[in-house]
Amino acid sequence: MSEEYRIAKEKYASIGVDTEVAIKRVSEIPVSIHCWQGDDVRGFESPDGDLTGGIQTTGNFPGRAKNIDQLREDIEMVFSLVPGKKRLNLHAIYLDNGGKKVERNKIEPKHFASWVDWARENKVGLDFNPTCFSSPMMKDGLTLSHPDKAIRDYWIEHCIASRKIAEYFGKELGTPAVTNLWVPDGFKDNPINRYEARQRLISAMDEIYSVKIDKKYNLDSAEGKLFGIGAESCTVGQHEIYLAYALTRGIMVTLDSGHYHPTEVISDKISSVLSFVPEILLHVSRPVRWDSDHVIILDDELKAIGAEIIRNNFENRVHIGLDYFDASINRIAAWTVGARNIKKSLLLAALEPTKKLTKIEREGDFTSRLELTEEYKTYPFGAVWDEFCARNKVPVGEKWIAKVKKYTKDVLSDRD
Ligand code: RNT
Ligand code: ZN
C-alpha cells in the first residue's frame, strides 16, 4: 500500500467512504470491450473488408489489425492495461471463416468456435451483434425494414443466426451473452410513409425474437438512433420504437451516448428506463457535435453515467458496453484510454458519500449539496485509482503508455 493511498484512504474515511469497499465493488463490474476499435469496424468477412454503408470511421492511422490473430493479440494487450472485470463484444463480421466467404444469413456457431477458445483462455465472457451494415444486401439504406420481403428475410435469418451464436457463447462460457440489434435503416430525404417502414421493422423483429432462447445463455437488446449519415431525414428504428418494443416484448433497450439530440444525455435516461424495464445495455461513446464515436474521456457525462449506476446500485441491471472507434490515432491507445476512463468513472462514483448527500437532498438543503459535491471534486481520487490498478495488476498511472509505445514498435509497425 503506497503512502499516497494510505493518506487518501483516511481522507475518504473522514466523509464515511471506505475506499477498500469501493475498490472491490468496481473491480467486479464487467465492461464489455468492443472488438471493433481495433480494425475500424471492418471485420474478417473478406480480406478487403470495408465500410460500404451504414457506419463510418475517419482516419487512417497505421497499425490496424488485418486478421483475427492480430486483432486477438491487440485485444490481449488492451486487456492487460485495463483494470477490473472485462468481457469482449464481437460483431458477426468478426467470424473465423477459414478464408471462405460465408453469407451473413449462413453464419453458425462453428465460425466462432475459435473465439470461444480464445475467451476461455482469457477468462472472459462474450457478447454479440448481428452486422446489418457494410453489405450489398443493405438496399436503399434499408435492411429489416426493406419493402422487399426477400431482403427482410435475409436480415431476419442473419439476426436469428446471430442469436444462436450468442446462445452458444452463453452455453460454452457459462455467462449469458448480450446480443445487441442495431440496424442503420433510414431515409436521406423525407419519406412519404414512415409508419409502414416502422411496421415492417417491428414485424421483422417479432420474427427474430419468435425463436425462443433461454435467458441463461442470451439476453437480447435493441438500439435506436436519431439519425445517421445518409439517413438524415428519418431513422426507422429510433429510441421510441425500441423502448416501446422492449416494454411490450420483454427484451432490453440499448442506450448509446451518441444517438440522441446533442444536449440529450443517456445518464438522465438510465433511471427513467429502468423504472420500467428490468435491464438495459449501454453503448458508452462520445458524440462530438454528432454521433462521431470519439474515444470516451472522463467528462461530465461519463462521470454522470458512472454515478447513475453506482448511486442506484444498478450494476446488475446495466450492461456496460463501449462503442467508440477512432482510426486517426493509435488504436491500442484509443481503446485503452476509453476503457480505463469508464472504470475511472465508476470508481469516482463509488467514492462518493451517496447516503449522506441523499439525506441532505431529501431535507431540501441544496446549498450544502452544491458546496460538498464541489469540494469532493478535489479529493485524492488519483491515489485510489492507482491502488485500484495495482490491485488489478495493470500498469499504474501513465506507465501503460510506455507499454503501448513498445507494443507499437515491436508489433504494430510491421503491419503496414
Ligand atoms: C451505430 C451503433 C452501433 C455500432 C456498432 C458497431 O451508430 O452505435 O452500435 O456502432 O454496432
Ligand atoms: Zn452503439
Molecular structure report:
- This protein has about 425 residues and is an alpha/beta fold.
- The chain has helices spanning about 5-15, 20-25, 70-80, 115-120, 150-175, 195-210, 240-250, 265-275, 300-310, 330-350, 355-360, 365-375, 380-390, 400-410, and strands at about 30-35, 85-90, 125-130, 175-180, 185, 220-225, 235, 250-255, 280-285, 320.
- It has one domain (about 30-350): Alpha-Beta Barrel (TIM Barrel), CATH 3.20.20.
- It contains 14 helices and ten strands.
- Strands 3-2-1-10-9-8-6-4 form an eight-stranded parallel sheet. It has a two-stranded antiparallel ribbon with strand order 5-7.
- α3 packs parallel to α10 (about 330-350) and α9 packs across α10 (about 330-350).
- The longest helix is centred in the middle third of the chain and has 25 residues, at about 150-175.
- The chain is globular.
